[in-house]
């Protein structure tokens, strides 16, 4: 699936989620952008942990979709996240997801999140997704 | 800190977060309730992963506060979560947090989340918190 | 499976692993003991991280076996571990595993490891196992 | 520290650990090799989970040492690992560790493990290390 197709699918399947766009799809995975707004922030202007969790999770979901097509039933079975640095105030977040395994039953990927304009990652995550039976290729 | 004190502190420090209440504080940790509403749901009525992540994170934060007092600067350094079962539609979530370690620098806890009315956990999580220097007891 | 059956199975399938015994099997899960010896230690006499990882992993495997019988092909897909306190020198380790989910495809459990004679946990872990197709109950 | 210095330090501080060599140190982190032998294997010839855990852990430790010098007291506080594919029989393992954060108190890194001769990762891991007070740079 191409970036706009993935976004259209996400808009349709998850209408309450907004602010996310797919900036790149390639052989390794995807890059996703979050346009940070007030509802994503904690007092002091820092992006909340659950928001960064959601960004990592959606980036992984987009990476899976980019390979197996519009499968709504792929679900997160597990996730692990480290919050390493405070994101830069007033900046969008960019999440780079590498799809490390796309198996018949499970998919595994990792994500580095950074503030736009900076190279150092603010958070890292790894996610495991369950691939539903109808989408299994064997 | 007692349940109402913890809630008052959370309301003050994190006004954008709502729906959470502390139902119990004891020697092991705390229990926290989330009054589930539409904004917490994905299509199909299931509670979203980021919502369950936030519930686990706040339960751990409340557990830390219950021991060291109103410390706003304790922050999540890492978290791990497994989504095991679909939560029951239309039910509140209850999160039981055990504080496993309260060190000078780091705190570690685990959380089991279940739907009210059911015993089987829908998710499990573990969290690590950083304890800020002023609150270090040695 | 009962404790001695599980141990016999482990001895047969994993002859290079030794020192482990199953001390209890119940409705929640299992308890496993590691008789700590020099090969498990780092300089200074502390039990090594990989040893505690192996103990947690075997405790989870034993918990899965106790429910679905002697299945050699159940394998660890993921694990998460926090090292919280130094184990007591010269003491055996006890690992308490709770089986939190035994699904058709995945099993999830958590483990608390403590030094014999002490109540505070030295490490916590969570593990996810893949259940092979032949053993799937539906 | 350079590769041979790191290996000499590891040999001195952890004499029971063997088979590991540092193949590269650069701005991103390190690469470490494990010369796989019988004691690392489960029946069927596959490298054991605890062995891959140890490899990831040592790669991270080497990455930390490469930046802050010979600090024996840096210890693993947490680790997360996914086993994705069976390693190739009879092949060495190579672990690539990226040091993502080297803070005053905590260091965070991730690791991809692959079989020599293959590009696809057999396992991924993330590790958190505690930096002892004397080595803190502020």
Automatic annotation (TrEMBL), chains A, B, C, D:
GO terms for molecular function: hydrolase activity. Keywords: Hydrolase. The keyword Glycoprotein does not apply. Its EC number is 3.1.2.-. Signal peptide: none annotated. The keyword Hydrolase applies. Gene3D superfamilies: Hotdog Thioesterase. It comes from the Bacteria. InterPro entries: HotDog_dom_sf, PAAI_dom, Thioestr_dom. Residues 44-119 form the Thioesterase domain. This is PaaI family thioesterase. It comes from Paracoccus niistensis.
């Amino acid at each position: 699936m191409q970036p706009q197709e993935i976004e259209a699918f996400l808009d349709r399947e998850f209408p309450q989620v907004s602010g996310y766009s797919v900036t790149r799809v390639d052989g390794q995975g995807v890059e996703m952008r979050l346009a940070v707004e007030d509802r994503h922030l904690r007092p002091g202007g820092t992006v909340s942990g659950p928001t960064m969790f959601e960004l990592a999770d959606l980036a992984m979901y987009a990476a899976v979709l980019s390979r197996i097509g519009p499968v709504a039933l792929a679900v997160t079975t597990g996730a692990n996240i480290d919050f390493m640095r405070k994101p830069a105030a007033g900046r969008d977040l960019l999440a780079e997801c590498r799809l490390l395994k796309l198996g018949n039953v499970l998919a595994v990927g990792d994500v580095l999140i950074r503030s736009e304009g900076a190279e150092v990652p603010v958070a890292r995550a790894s996610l495991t997704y369950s691939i539903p039976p109808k989408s299994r290729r064997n």
